[in-house]
Design goal:
Elements: E1 2-7, H1 19-32, E2 36-40, H2 49-59, E3 66-69, H3 79-87, E4 92-96, E5 100-104, H4 119-135, E6 138-142, H5 163-172, E7 177-180, E8 187-191, E9 194-198, E10 214-220, E11 224-231, E12 236-243
Parallel strand pairs: 1-2, 2-3, 5-6, 6-7, 7-9
Antiparallel strand pairs: 1-10, 4-5, 8-9, 10-11, 11-12
Helix pairs in contact: 2-3
This protein binds fe (ii) ion (2 copies).
């Protein structure tokens, strides 16, 4: 069994970051003892160097290994460089226990809100997914921008600009899970044999309506995948349950 916590959109800054909610989230996630935490971007609000420094102090509070991709807010103000210096690679691949692969993509562009993967990264992704297929690994792709529009988010402005081509690659390779953030609204779509999950914001005050700060939890066994939406403060909802042989 593999347990993964998926957090997103922390927006660490002086104004919109809710420190109390963040500390509570850390306590809850540490109690779950996940095998890893995947962070799908917008760690900082403006990409400022001091925000990244502040972020490392907060992220160190998580006990599980944490892997992050940048969001559009992280790529502002030379943040794409700072991300590499302080957080790590912007695109990466990791394999766990020889049978689960997570691929992180950088969908951000400097000082722009829109998302784009671009040809070089797309070709790299295809190559990595070919390897996953050969090894029959459970595959997860993490990126900040949503690849399918999210309900309750108003007019669609910045779905990934090359979403069609990326979706084609993700679905033809039968990627098991695609994880994103950006819209601060939790959601699950299933497209062919691929589950596409959007996490809400972990601790930003920038929330729509009555949507609460939250994170997703994935319980992956040989037989099934359970997806939970955990609101900070204890509310838990089963968001989806899929038999592995259906995927
Ligand atoms: Fe965000
Ligand atoms: Fe974003």
């Amino acid at each position: 069994m593999t347990l993964i916590a998926h957090i997103s959109d922390l927006h660490i800054c002086e104004t919109d970051f809710d420190e109390d909610i963040f500390i509570q989230a850390v306590t809850e996630i540490n109690q779950l003892q996940p095998d890893m935490i995947i962070l799908t971007g917008d760690i900082t609000n403006c990409g400022y160097y001091v925000e990244f420094q502040q972020a490392t102090r907060y992220l160190e509070m998580f006990e599980a290994p944490l892997f992050a991709v940048p969001g559009n807010h992280d790529a502002r103000n030379l943040g794409y460089q700072t991300f590499e210096e302080i957080i790590g690679e912007r695109s990466w691949k990791l394999t766990m226990d020889g049978d689960l692969t997570v691929i992180g993509l950088d969908s951000s562009s400097p000082d722009e809100s829109r998302g784009n993967i671009g040809n070089p990264q797309h070709m790299w992704l295809e190559h990595q997914l070919d390897e996953c297929a050969i090894n029959e690994n459970f595959s997860i792709v993490a990126l900040h921008h949503h690849v399918i529009p999210i309900p309750q988010t108003g007019r669609e402005r910045n779905v990934l600009s090359d979403a069609g081509d990326i979706l084609k690659t993700l679905t033809t390779h039968e990627v098991d899970l695609v994880l994103s953030g950006h819209k601060h609204v939790p959601n699950v779509w299933k497209l062919n044999n691929t589950i596409v999950v959007n996490a809400g914001s972990l601790c930003s005050k920038k929330l729509r309506g009555k949507i609460k700060n939250s994170y997703m939890v994935y319980n992956i066994t040989d037989d099934e995948i359970e997806i939970f939406l955990n609101n900070i403060g204890g509310e838990k909802f089963l968001f989806g349950k899929y038999a592995r042989n259906e995927l």
